[in-house]
Amino acid sequence: MFDNWIKKGEFITESKINEAAAYISFGNSMSRVMENARYDLTKLFMKSIILSKLDKGPAGGYDLIKFFHEKYKVLFSAGTVYSYLYSMERSDLIEPEYNEGKKMFRLTAKGKETLEEFRKIKKAIINLTEKLLMNI
Q1: Quick one: three-class SS letters along 101-129?
Q2: 1 FRET partner, CA 20 to 30 A, in 19, 70, 95, 127?
Q3: What CATH code would you report for 33-134?
């Protein structure tokens, strides 16, 4: 499937990845390979995904866990998400704020700058991923 798209010079888009996922699926359950790939890729881009989500407004850790589960079908533990959040906070990409006693996180100026840099190189990352997958 990917080989045909690559031979035609087509970019592998999110919709094509979803098409491939549907092709690989067995009945109602996704194959273990696809589940692992979805988890690994989502975790690989977790920092950028969190920055993008917080660009739309503040969110708490459990809001992010729910977001990842609903949008990407990946259930990260609270420990995984909070570990990323605290690391990003120490790197001055996000900062906490409290709303009715709930700890929320929002982007800092450095976080917005980092997100914009990532958005600028996103196409290069997609092209690199295609090249890496071509020989598998």
Answers
A1: CEEEEEECHHHHHHHHHHHHHHHHHHHHH
A2: 70
A3: 1.10.10.10
